[in-house]
């Protein structure tokens, strides 16, 4: 077939995406679409000619004839290569322009009748030659600003003979979008085509020159920055080696501005400015300059003028404390009193409070609740095991790694100059060769001195008078007297059975339910279950073990919920026994009947009160006194005093006065492995001795506590609240107490008062008829007469 035939030609059509092919161009591209491959195959069967046309929309995946431009190029397929990825690569040579006349339906590929538009050969005019020269010149300008253009393209441009050929070749080999190239392809007039190309070249050259300038400026700026950075780094290293700094005063001036902004006292300000001047004279990288910087940063970060505003409302404060802690009425009242005074005065009264009591009763937590209730920030300082004075006062700056003490660090962390500082376990402080931290606290906890507290590291006075100090201790006797004198001791007694029950019900159970992912509707503890836990699985002053046991029960419920899909749980005594195993402790039980020589005593322990039975056996002998049951020195002396009291009042008590000659007395306190001490079992021992000597039984439902003198007077004791609770739990109906402890009955739990009768006594003569079965009342006159006679006899013996 003739390449220049003017007749219509039926050819397969190959749509191109974003690609325009010009006549005489030799290109290759990959073909992937099924219809395109079919068109290639059809062309290969018929003279290898194919019509290449550009799609109007490059994103169209399956275009028809109407979605392609009408003008394209008739090309010859030079080579077809099958690629490893199943695509087809074709090498095509453009022949001449052509236009679609009539689309022809074909189910395999696009077909159309096309009309050739061959370029006509004619003699160039002077205007056309000048235009060609202008285009070549502009192309040279384009080459200067465009990315690398191959030399063979430049050579070919110079050798093109006709306007049309020159326009087509340049358009084919410069970077243009396919719409612009299509416009040039569609222009059949060679002169107009070349003129159109000249406009495009001028525009592209201008745009590329601007782009090149921008890129060059950006590159120059980056190179300059890199150069500056490199030089600065070199300069810094050189200065560090030489110990020099280009502007030492700028940093010092910044510190000085911060110092003046704080508006400190003149003395403090002068000290800090002097440090700034030192910093100004020092090389930047020196060790001493680093120390001064750290010091200034630490001092300036302290809250010199920052304070939180107290939100003191007595009503709200009382509600908040009642909500967070059950009981502790004395402590709450004392705190409310102090804060009420603070609000009326407008400043703090400076009193230091010390919460003293056994572990787990809520000393630290109530201190934190106080801070929360009044809107102050709080910091806890653990003093247990601290034995270095510098922990309190800080280290001097002359030492490497020196830091402020715990007091100033807590102030800094709190971010205000009036926080609540909780000094925890103040009785656990120790001392060694590094100093006595207890003595260091004397200034801190003295409201008359702490307004100018000087930390060794800070080395300037800081006002601690606005700080609310609350200390905690387990054993007040371990606190040195001078330090103890600076604090108001508030005793926290161990919780009673009823208090533990209410704490568990209102606080511990809800807290553990939340921790274990349960709601109050899913798990319910019966009252008896909580009492069961308290009575048979705990022996503690506080409630920590009780909380752990509740958590243990709930964790076992969580396992059951997941394994057995049980939705709700009702915790009773039976469930507690199944989950936690056998009872760890047993309750004190009363004797089944009235017994001779056995009396129910009451003892105080760190975990509450206990029933302490005292047994006495009287045997024929030579007057020996045997004491067993791990009795301490004070308790042994009480036993001897009780024997002497009985002996001196033998006649009024109806006892043979010679019993000390022919009777051996053995006093025993059961649970011999448990050490026991204290004077409060005096009347208990005396009553047991009386019962054993007379053979009269002691009432089983009577318990007693009180110290006894040689004359038979009953002296006051401590821990009545805990002892009364022990009596209540054991089923005691009557408790004999010293008359001087009658005022302590106000602190007794109302439930205990309702069930137990308390009888105050002043003399052992009043104890006997209450505790012993069928014993007549001993008149006061008869009892005192015997006692006076005893004293007189002793006085006469002394005079002799």
Structure, described:
The structure is a single chain. With 800 residues, the chain is of the alpha/beta class. The protein folds into 6 domains: 109 residues, Archaeosine Trna-guanine Transglycosylase, Chain: A, domain 4 (Roll); 78 residues, Up-down Bundle (Methane Monooxygenase Hydroxylase, Chain G, domain 1), CATH 1.20.58; 53 residues; 178 residues, 3-Layer(aba) Sandwich (Rossmann fold), CATH 3.40.50; 84 residues, Helicase, Ruva Protein, domain 3; 199 residues, Ribosomal Protein S5, domain 2 (2-Layer Sandwich), CATH 3.30.230.10. Helices cover 46% and strands 18% of the residues. It has 28 helices and 24 strands. The strands form 6 sheets. The chain has a 7-stranded mixed beta sheet. It has a 5-stranded mixed barrel with strand order 1-3-4-5-6. Strand 16 and strand 17 form a beta hairpin. Helix 2 packs parallel to helix 6, helix 8 packs antiparallel against helix 9 and helix 18 crosses helix 20. The chain is elongated, with a radius of gyration of 53 Å. The protein starts with 8 loop residues before the first strand and ends with a helix. The relative contact order is 0.05. The N terminus and C terminus are likely disordered.
Helices and strands in order:
Blueprint (H helix, E strand, L loop, with lengths): L8 E8 L9 E6 L2 H11 L4 E6 L16 E12 L5 E17 L5 E8 L8 H20 L5 H9 L3 H11 L4 H9 L3 H53 L5 H15 L3 H16 L5 H14 L13 H11 L4 H17 L6 E5 L6 H12 L3 E5 L7 H4 L12 H9 L5 E5 L12 H8 L8 E2 L6 E2 L5 E6 L7 H5 L1 E5 L5 H19 L7 E3 L1 H11 L6 H21 L4 E3 L1 H8 L17 E8 L2 E13 L4 E4 L4 H16 L1 H4 L5 H4 E6 L13 H13 L7 E3 L2 E2 L5 E2 L4 H11 L3 E5 L11 H6 L1 E5 L2 H8 L8 H20 L1
Parallel strand pairs: 1-3, 7-12, 7-13, 8-9, 9-12, 14-15, 16-20, 18-19, 20-23, 23-24
Antiparallel strand pairs: 1-6, 2-5, 3-4, 4-5, 5-6, 10-11, 16-17, 17-19, 21-22
Helix pairs in contact: 2-6, 4-6, 7-8, 8-9, 10-11, 10-12, 17-18, 17-19, 18-20, 21-24, 24-27
């Amino acid at each position: 077939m003739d390449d220049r035939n003017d007749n219509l030609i039926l050819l397969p059509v190959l749509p191109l995406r974003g690609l325009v092919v010009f006549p005489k161009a030799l290109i290759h591209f990959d073909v992937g679409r099924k219809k395109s491959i079919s068109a290639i195959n059809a062309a290969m069967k018929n003279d290898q000619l194919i019509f290449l046309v550009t799609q109007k929309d490059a994103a169209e995946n399956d275009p028809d004839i109407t979605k392609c431009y009408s003008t394209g190029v008739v090309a010859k397929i030079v080579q077809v290569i099958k690629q490893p990825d199943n695509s087809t690569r074709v090498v095509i040579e453009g022949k001449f322009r052509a236009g679609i006349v009539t689309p022809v339906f074909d189910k395999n590929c696009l077909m159309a009748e096309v009309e050739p538009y061959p370029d006509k050969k004619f003699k160039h005019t002077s205007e056309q030659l000048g235009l060609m020269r202008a285009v070549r010149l502009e192309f040279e300008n384009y080459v200067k600003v465009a990315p690398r253009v191959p030399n063979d393209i430049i050579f070919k441009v110079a050798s093109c003979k006709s306007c049309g050929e020159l326009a087509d070749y340049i358009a084919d080999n410069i970077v243009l979008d396919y719409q612009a190239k299509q416009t040039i392809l569609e222009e059949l007039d060679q002169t107009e085509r070349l003129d159109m190309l000249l406009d495009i070249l001028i525009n592209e050259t201008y745009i590329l020159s601007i782009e090149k300038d921008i890129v060059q400026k950006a590159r120059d700026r980056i190179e300059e920055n890199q150069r500056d950075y490199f030089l600065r780094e070199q300069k810094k290293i050189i200065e560090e080696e030489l110990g020099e700094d280009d502007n030492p005063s700028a940093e010092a001036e910044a510190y000085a501005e911060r110092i003046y902004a704080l508006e400190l006292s003149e003395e403090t300000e002068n000290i800090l400015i002097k440090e700034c001047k030192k910093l100004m004279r020092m090389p930047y990288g020196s060790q001493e300059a680093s120390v001064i910087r750290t010091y200034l940063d630490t001092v300036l970060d302290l809250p010199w003028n920052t304070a939180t505003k107290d939100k003191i409302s007595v009503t709200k404060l009382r509600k908040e404390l009642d909500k967070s802690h059950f009981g502790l009425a004395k402590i709450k009242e004392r705190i409310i009193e102090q804060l009420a005074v603070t609000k009326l005065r407008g400043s703090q009264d400076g009193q230091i409070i010390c919460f003293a009591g056994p572990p787990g009763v809520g000393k630290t937590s109530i201190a934190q609740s106080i801070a929360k209730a009044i809107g102050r920030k709080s910091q806890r300082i653990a003093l247990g095991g601290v034995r270095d004075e510098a922990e309190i006062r800080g280290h001097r700056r002359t030492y490497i790694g020196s830091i402020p003490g715990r007091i100033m660090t807590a102030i800094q962390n709190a971010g205000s100059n009036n926080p609540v500082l909780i000094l925890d376990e103040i009785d656990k402080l120790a001392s060694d060769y590094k100093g006595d931290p207890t003595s260091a606290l004397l200034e801190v906890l003295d409201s008359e001195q702490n307004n100018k507290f000087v930390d060794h590291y800070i080395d300037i006075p800081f006002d601690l008078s606005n700080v609310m100090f609350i200390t905690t201790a387990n054993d007040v006797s371990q606190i040195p007297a001078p330090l103890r004198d600076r604090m108001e001791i508030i005793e926290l007694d161990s919780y009673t059975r009823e208090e533990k029950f209410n704490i568990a019900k209102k606080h511990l159970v809800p807290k553990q339910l939340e921790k274990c992912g349960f709601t109050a509707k899913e798990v319910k503890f019966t009252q008896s279950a909580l009492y069961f836990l308290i009575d048979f699985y705990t022996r503690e002053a506080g409630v920590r073990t009780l909380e752990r046991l509740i958590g243990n029960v709930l964790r076992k419920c969580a396992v059951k919920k997941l394994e057995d899909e049980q939705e709700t749980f009702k915790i009773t005594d039976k469930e507690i026994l199944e989950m936690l195993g056998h009872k760890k402790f047993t309750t004190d039980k009363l004797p089944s009947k009235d017994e001779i020589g056995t009396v129910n005593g009451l003892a105080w322990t760190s975990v509450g009160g206990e029933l302490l039975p005292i047994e006495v056996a009287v045997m024929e002998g030579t007057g020996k006194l045997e004491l067993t049951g791990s009795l301490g020195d004070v308790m042994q002396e009480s036993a001897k005093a009780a024997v002497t009291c009985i002996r001196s009042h033998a006649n009024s008590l109806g006892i043979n006065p010679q019993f000390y000659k022919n009777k051996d007395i053995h006093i025993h306190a059961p649970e011999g492995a448990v050490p026991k001490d204290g004077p409060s079992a005096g009347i208990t021992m005396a009553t047991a001795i009386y019962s054993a000597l007379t053979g009269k039984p002691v009432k089983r439902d009577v318990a007693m506590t009180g110290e006894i003198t040689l004359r038979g007077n009953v002296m006051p004791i401590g821990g009545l609240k805990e002892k009364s609770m022990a009596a209540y739990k054991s089923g005691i109906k009557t408790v004999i107490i010293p008359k001087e402890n009658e005022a302590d009955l106000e602190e007794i739990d109302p439930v205990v008062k309702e069930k137990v009768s308390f009888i105050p006594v002043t003399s052992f003569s009043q104890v006997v008829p209450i505790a012993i079965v069928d014993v007549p009342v001993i008149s006061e006159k008869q009892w005192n007469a015997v006692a006076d006679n005893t004293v007189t006899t002793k006085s006469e013996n002394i005079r002799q």
